[in-house]
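Before the break, one more example. Copy the sequence into your notebook; we will annotate it together after we see the structure.
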Amino acid sequence: MTDDGARTVRAGRRTVEIHRPDKVLFPGAGGAGEYTKGDLADYHRAVAPFMLPHLRGRPLMLDRRPDGIGGPTFMQKNTPDGYPEWITRVEVAKEGGTVRHTVCDDTATLLYLVDQASITLHRWLSRADGPGGVDRPDRLVFDLDPPDDDFAAVREAARLLGELLDELNLPSALMTTGSRGLHVIVPLSGHHDFDDVRAFAREVADVLAAAHPDRLTTAARKKDRGDRLYLDIQRNAYAQTAVAPYTVRALPGAPVATPVSWDQLDDPDLHARRWTVADAVEQARTDPWAGLLSRGRALGPARRRLRALRG
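Here is what the structure looks like once it is written out:
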């Protein structure tokens, strides 16, 4: 501890100060665990080897809660001038100008963001250092969004989507969102632009919803969904983001968006908030994705298979 109560944490060649480490960010109400900023620093330091491969090179949007999850929310895209020079930035185009996003390339940056009370890290689906830069995503994401907390519907939708992606010869990975649903992630070659990727995702979602119209929908408006699960493909657009693997959600108990294997979908104890900062590192050590995301595919062959299926 420093004289002003800050805690100094070693991260590789750097040291990072965690100010007010005893500040409660997650109150322990309703039986949920209580977690302080210091607890979050400990979690991120432990999970960094598993989390950083999903963050490096990617522009971030930060969900900051300086007064904890019950206080004001700051969704930060632009990197403030006061951030240390050693933190990576990337300038990306937006309508009428540019945005200078923070990029988390190392453990020190991850801890610095924790000190800034960045609870949830939302990442781009493209990398600034990827084959086509930020304009070419190397991830496609389907967000399985149920109308309520019925996880059985999420489980069923994931199985149906996974089977369809298998038919298209596309590898896929599964992740709890830490909120209500699951993300199904497809690794891409990085040679398609966002419009092309989103159009393909829309085709897949349309095929699945047409086959199961009583259970699934692609309707963007809630009033049009009824009690059906929403196949959300909207994150597959330029400047949109998705929650990063192993990031913490700003919800009671500090649930974590956690990668899982497809076999774990059959676990009756699985639900969207199954893991928290207390045990997500143990799940990370099992390597549930086991190299899946290094098998990026081009969409041409999958699109031809999909259109053949549509007849």
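The longest helix spans residues 194-211. Residues 6-132+240-253 form a domain with the DNA primase, PRIM domain fold (CATH 3.90.920.10). Try to locate both features in your own notes.
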